[in-house]
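RETRY 2/3 - previous attempt timed out on the joint model. Re-submitting the same 611-residue input unchanged.
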Amino acid sequence: MNMIELQGVHKQFDGVHAVNGISLVVQEGEVLGLFGHNGAGKTTTMKLILGLLKPSSGTISVMGESPAENNKVIKRSLGYLPENVSFYPQLTGREVLYYFGKLKGVSKKQCDLLIERVGLGHACLRKVKTYSKGMKQRLGLAQALLGEPRLLLLDEPTGGLDPVATVDFYQVVDELKHKGCAVVLCSHVLPGVEKHISKAAILGKGCLVAYGALDELRDQARLPIRLNATFSQGRDQQFSVMESAIKSAQGDQPHFQVKKVNAQSIECAVSSENKLSVLKQLSAHDHLTDMEMHMPSLEQIYLHFNQSLFSSDERLKNTSTEGLRSH
Amino acid sequence: MNSKFFHSLYLVSVVAEKEFKDGVRNRWVVAITLMFSLLSIGLSYFGAAASGMVGFTSISTTVVSLASLAVFIIPLIALMLSFDAIVGEDESGTLLLLMTYPLSRLQLLLGKFLGHGAIMAVATVLGFGSAALVIAVFSPLTAVSDVVEHFSLFIVSAILLGWVFVALAYCVSAWVSEKSKAAGIVLVIWMLFVVVFDLALLALLVGYEGRLDERVVSTIILFNPADAFRLLNLMGFDGRQVASGVLSVAGGAKVGIMGLMSILFAWVVVPFLISYRLFLKRVV
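RETRY 2/3 succeeded.
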């Protein structure tokens, strides 16, 4: 079943085209990663799915219904973690969760279980104003999990979480995925997300620049795979041999090159279709002692699709203003 | 249908309970109660100090001077208590979250109003009620039945006055996008109703040198909940003797106590409905 279906969705706020013709589908048991630069339209997309905003044109269906603020069928089986939420500082963590639990018809017992599950058991009697960013984030997650949602929308869920908590968090996401819950995950922190998402949607300036499973995106981006080879004897003799081997395998494409790393090792970039033939040639070499292969990471894919979006001078402008801000 | 209705009421009560508990927790209830109580006991005991004596004065003087003080304080407290009801939740991000819950905007607003309304009501009853008790027990001049009669009218109208300004604060809170802006506008509203309105009316009277029809003035006065409240508490006594300022002209108002009560009540309902309209239009 399609939990979320967006078809040619546009959203304009007085003159600004925040979302520009987005179409995507999320099914049960799927985790969609929603990525994009600041102001790319991620939060607007989330709000459209939540029914807090109405699309200017296009159709949205959530769990087979049209999302609207008064659609309680959707709201009962939906969990949401906003990007910035400071809850009620004067209440304890447990009181906050009880309050939201009551509004969603969840028993206190269930709330207590959730508090334990997100690892807030030791702090649940303390006031929220004493919480660190990470603890607030855990409380937010517990709140989103109230009532066993079938659809979970998480905006920057790992912001402020330490590495252990991040691992815990993704464990929860994986569990939900196996139970058939659909998850939309919005994040700036790209490393670590890769393993847990079924598809990625990269937004830029309100448009969907790339959308699909990671393998599909890798193919689309045609980013080289990096191979590091280390040899027991002097690198230079091997180098020219390797260079000609790779050139013969994939033609003389400029960015698939061989580079010298140090006295013993060389690095070469190969396209995914030539990966195997180059690997075979390398492994046939007598002096080869070690070899590493790096697939293009989500980060590289993300950067690739964003590069096509901004012209080079615009990127310069961005970095120079950021430089100013940091000084 | 029926169970849906009860569930809806339950959600309203959940919000109301939280608001009320917040009020108890951050000492609003205690502070307002103490203030009302000390104010009324002080006024009734020292009220006659100007004429050279100390001791409990007559119940009419006490209630009338109490009313003219309460008309400044109650609106201010009600506005301060509730000006951030919506804009505050919006700024902390919880409004966005609440909107994704199976809770309608009306349920949220109504729950908040019941909570804040209860805070005002409890503080008013406890504060002025305790003062009435002290006066009834210790004042030799006044009969207990008089105290009960005048104070119950005073307390009921004071509660209504508080609710009026809670509803007015909601209008501001649902309308503006920043808390600090709401605080400023709320102060302006207080000035308008409590100070400027009477001054403007006096200026009008003086400007027209008495040629203005008394009935016109007494009708205009009804457009101000603060004046309606004062008038209401003068009526219990022979109004013309104790009335001062603009109100001395308003003796001609033939609306009666129940009429004034309904005016105050309308001043609760209409601003609340307006605040609901504004809240519906608000983009979260």
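The mean pLDDT of chain B is 87. Closing ticket.
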